[in-house]
Amino acid sequence: MLARHNRNDTGERMSDVVAEVHDLGKVHGGGSARVVALDGVTAAFRKGEFTAVMGPSGSGKSTLLHCLAGLDTPTSGAVRVGGTDLSTLDDDRLTRLRRERIGFVFQSFNLVPTLTAWENITLPLTMGGVRPDRDWVEGIVAAVGLSDRLHHRPAELSGGQQQRVACARAMATRPDIIVADEPTGNLDTRSGAAVLGLLAGCARQWNQAVLMVTHDPMAAAHTDRILFLTDGRLADEMPAPTADRVLDRMRDLDPEAAHG
Amino acid sequence: MRYAVRAVVAAKARYVLPAIGIVLGVAFVVSALVYGEAVRAMAERDAALADVSVEVGPDRTETPLDSALVRRLAQVPGVAGVRPIARGWAFLVDREGGTDRAAATNYLPSRHTLDAGQAPQGANEVVLDDKAGYSVGDRVRIVVNGVVRDVRVSGTTAASRSLIVLDTATARKDFAAAPDAYTEVDLVAAAGTSESALLAAVKEVLPDEFGAVSGTELAASAQADAEKITEILLGFAAIALFVACFLIANTFTMLSTARARENALLRAIGASRRAVLRRVLAEAAVLGVIATVPGYVVGIGGAALLGNLFSDGPPLQALALTPILVALCVGLGVTVVAAYLPARRAAAIPPIAALRTGLPVDQRSLNRRSVVGAISTAAGLAAICATPQTWELIYLGAPLLMLGLIALTPWLGLRLTALIRRPLTRLAGPRATLAVENARRVPRRTAATANALMVGLAICAAATVPLASLAAEAERAADTGDTADLRITPVDFAALAPDTAARVAAVPGVRLVSPVGNAHLDLGGGRALDAAVVDPVSLPQFVPVTVRAGVLGSLDHAIAVTTETATRRQWAVGTRVSTYTVAAIVDLPAGFGHDALVASDPDGQPPASILVRADPGQADAVRDRIRAALDNPTVRVHTRTEYREAAAEPYRRFLGILYALLGAAVLIGALAVATTMTMSTVERTREVGLLRAIGMTRAHVRAAFRWESVVVALLAAVVGLPAGVLIGSSAVWGQDSVALAIPWPTLGLFVVLTAIIGVVAAAWPAWRASRLPVLDALRSDTE
């Protein structure tokens, strides 16, 4: 079903799709406390493509990211990462999938405070008992510009540096997809731009699929396309966005938020 | 106060483990007090029941106290009553074939009130204490002086400990040194005569080789025993409470950290430091009082247990004012005192901290603490190294060393974990790296946790080394250089019957027997010779006796002395020694342990052991045959290895009791590890969420916490065990007669047990951490 849907609608080659969600639904609570976070979202994410998910608070964008990354379980629909249906996996296999096929960048507290930058970057590898491929990891480290900070602990790094370490960690395992949850939310403009540049580079130079949830139109303007969510539904998709167009679209979707 | 109660109830999960620590500490104190009081009360009751003003007895048991002396004592002015007594030890064979050592004495109508039946008549009847579990008419076996007797229970009497009452003629025959004698005489003062006046009057007429003590002194010495028991138990209770202090202090430190923002908020809205301090201390007080109640109940149970283990269950007074008040003071006091420093630190939080995110980091430098610790450790080591010269220095050195190490543990912990980080990472990957790093995170907390376990371990090691040395010494002493296949000895306080050697010789498979006794030869002028009573014909078949001069012969009115004794005393063959002539000068094996050999004991004591040569390769079978032939549970028939082991057995048993008493301290130490691990999982919720998100499996999360717990526990072993071994060794260095024996296998076992404590203590926290929902954990505000 999924494959036909993709071919028919977009005409893209199947092999480029690394992750997809189909008719995804997520309901929190029950009875009067019932909250619909996602309501039938279908989307596909391809190699070399940097996608942003935007939407007002409570639109379900974080839930979408969490479901896609195997951190949350949807109540309906399917999630596939690298051809694997996540609903078929037990906790250990799901954990292994997160470790090997997904790279994470969170808004804050991305790093283990007791480990050095190098140990943080190689953590997903060493946790899986894999000896880090030094050349590959050092290439990433050079790309994120941290070669001289590798033996520092997170507390000795600036917020921007910490976030770059997180990006390096996300890339270290050559995952199918990198998911970033408000990666620039806690950073100043310059550090934020550096992190966004890195994520964009992941997609364009390293041919990686990158999915980022953000509030920030400036951040979203770095991406190849934007998915707009409102009330748990896919409201719109904008290819090749610019900051101005994003702002306009946001204003349409949620006039209050755009003013505030 | 109402807030404090609510706070304790709200945080009850976090208070469970420290509360168990307080319960154990309080219980130990209550057990000591209630059991000690029961023993004391029993001694007091016995003394009152005995109604003795003065007790007269010989200085040496071999001196007969004859009826002429009894008559003389009866005529001393002020004596209203005279009770001649013949007493000693006897054994009651229980239904399982084991033995129960009992005081045996002659029947005294004034002293033994019969609950049932009547007084014993003749050698075949006895009265037993009512706790023995027999009734009038039952047939029982008793062993007196190594001889088994089948007797009939003629009556029962109330007694505080095991008692066998014999008829007077039988008791005198069994225990008195001469046919017409007794072992002691109890005198009762007439009305108007004071105990001390009577004592003085009795001492006037008493021959030199007899002594007299007043009833008050007798009672006092019995009560002093009870007080000593209480003191020893309270000593162990103090250790447990000391360890509990670490647990409590750690709990309050971690709670204060978790509540730092709440406290800062209180300060920001105008609460004074004192108010915050009072809030924390009130919570400690509530915890202390709540834990005291179960502590008291457990303590009564513990006292009952001690009563059944160490005496015949003296009646306990479960509710008495003193133990209740002491329990309350201890429970409340220890908790509040241990919580005071954490409370002060909680109160010292700046109001601005309310606005900061994350948990405050302990910034205080370790330098001062480490320097003080190093100085104290060095001073303690110096004092301990000087113990061979001045033994008493151990009382200074041991506490200095322990306190120094406690102060030094944060620093040591940082150094040691830095050392093991790399090898452990190689061994177990990031699980181990995280574990080691987390153990390093808050050095003071890790140290306090390790210290709680360390104190118990150090004391265990300190007790093990001297006792293992004594046991090794006893095993060495048991090897007297003889070649006997079997050795027959009585159990403690028992004796071998005079005909034992002859009966053993008649057992099929026995080739040769040789009885060996101990004699004390009085040479006059305060000089004595420690001689072995031997059969000079058979002994050389078992013990290599090298005759240097003279002839061993039959040692008729003669002795053989060792070369060393002869040289020291300047004796030669033919020298007259007391009533003996030196017949030979001999060399005996080093382990034989006597200065001379004689053929018979002047006091007529039965042999202390019998050496047996069995048919070749038949030792075990012959042993079983001898046991069956003697049919006497107070006689031990041992092969060579069994005998060595049996010699060390009392020390091992004593060590077992010590371990049981120290168990509470070690258990509280284990609780401290569990508490810290539990708090750690709470504090690191978000980190666990991150680790799970980026791909750490549940099993690995559990392993990381387990490794951390094991690292902390092993830190306790690495610091505590060497310190304990050193302190224990210094106790041995002071003794010339005992060689130091370090019990490596036991110490290795301690290390393994400590690691197991680490694993077990982390089990629940680790399981909980691994089950945290990943998303909730990621969103939690603790770091």
Automatic annotation (TrEMBL), chain A:
<feature type="domain" description="ABC transporter">
    <location>
        <begin position="19"/>
        <end position="256"/>
    </location>
</feature>
<dbReference type="InterPro" id="IPR015854">
    <property type="entry name" value="ABC_transpr_LolD-like"/>
</dbReference>
<protein>
    <submittedName>
        <fullName>Putative ABC transport system ATP-binding protein</fullName>
    </submittedName>
</protein>
<keyword id="KW-0813">Transport</keyword>
<dbReference type="GO" id="GO:0005524">
    <property type="term" value="F:ATP binding"/>
</dbReference>
<dbReference type="GO" id="GO:0098796">
    <property type="term" value="C:membrane protein complex"/>
</dbReference>
<dbReference type="GO" id="GO:0022857">
    <property type="term" value="F:transmembrane transporter activity"/>
</dbReference>
<keyword id="KW-0067">ATP-binding</keyword>
<keyword id="KW-0547">Nucleotide-binding</keyword>
<dbReference type="InterPro" id="IPR003593">
    <property type="entry name" value="AAA+_ATPase"/>
</dbReference>
<dbReference type="InterPro" id="IPR027417">
    <property type="entry name" value="P-loop_NTPase"/>
</dbReference>
<dbReference type="InterPro" id="IPR003439">
    <property type="entry name" value="ABC_transporter-like_ATP-bd"/>
</dbReference>
<dbReference type="InterPro" id="IPR017911">
    <property type="entry name" value="MacB-like_ATP-bd"/>
</dbReference>
<dbReference type="GO" id="GO:0016887">
    <property type="term" value="F:ATP hydrolysis activity"/>
</dbReference>
<dbReference type="GO" id="GO:0005886">
    <property type="term" value="C:plasma membrane"/>
</dbReference>
<dbReference type="Pfam" id="PF00005">
    <property type="entry name" value="ABC_tran"/>
</dbReference>
TrEMBL record, chain B:
<feature type="transmembrane region" description="Helical">
    <location>
        <begin position="15"/>
        <end position="35"/>
    </location>
</feature>
<dbReference type="Pfam" id="PF02687">
    <property type="entry name" value="FtsX"/>
</dbReference>
<dbReference type="InterPro" id="IPR050250">
    <property type="entry name" value="Macrolide_Exporter_MacB"/>
</dbReference>
<dbReference type="Pfam" id="PF12704">
    <property type="entry name" value="MacB_PCD"/>
</dbReference>
<dbReference type="GO" id="GO:0022857">
    <property type="term" value="F:transmembrane transporter activity"/>
</dbReference>
<keyword id="KW-0812">Transmembrane</keyword>
<protein>
    <submittedName>
        <fullName>Putative ABC transport system permease protein</fullName>
    </submittedName>
</protein>
<feature type="transmembrane region" description="Helical">
    <location>
        <begin position="232"/>
        <end position="255"/>
    </location>
</feature>
<feature type="transmembrane region" description="Helical">
    <location>
        <begin position="318"/>
        <end position="341"/>
    </location>
</feature>
<dbReference type="GO" id="GO:0005886">
    <property type="term" value="C:plasma membrane"/>
</dbReference>
<keyword id="KW-1003">Cell membrane</keyword>
<feature type="transmembrane region" description="Helical">
    <location>
        <begin position="276"/>
        <end position="298"/>
    </location>
</feature>
<feature type="transmembrane region" description="Helical">
    <location>
        <begin position="450"/>
        <end position="472"/>
    </location>
</feature>
<feature type="transmembrane region" description="Helical">
    <location>
        <begin position="747"/>
        <end position="767"/>
    </location>
</feature>
<comment type="similarity">
    <text>Belongs to the ABC-4 integral membrane protein family.</text>
</comment>
<feature type="transmembrane region" description="Helical">
    <location>
        <begin position="395"/>
        <end position="414"/>
    </location>
</feature>
<keyword id="KW-0472">Membrane</keyword>
<feature type="transmembrane region" description="Helical">
    <location>
        <begin position="657"/>
        <end position="682"/>
    </location>
</feature>
<feature type="domain" description="ABC3 transporter permease C-terminal">
    <location>
        <begin position="661"/>
        <end position="773"/>
    </location>
</feature>
<feature type="domain" description="MacB-like periplasmic core">
    <location>
        <begin position="19"/>
        <end position="204"/>
    </location>
</feature>
<dbReference type="InterPro" id="IPR003838">
    <property type="entry name" value="ABC3_permease_C"/>
</dbReference>
<feature type="domain" description="ABC3 transporter permease C-terminal">
    <location>
        <begin position="236"/>
        <end position="351"/>
    </location>
</feature>
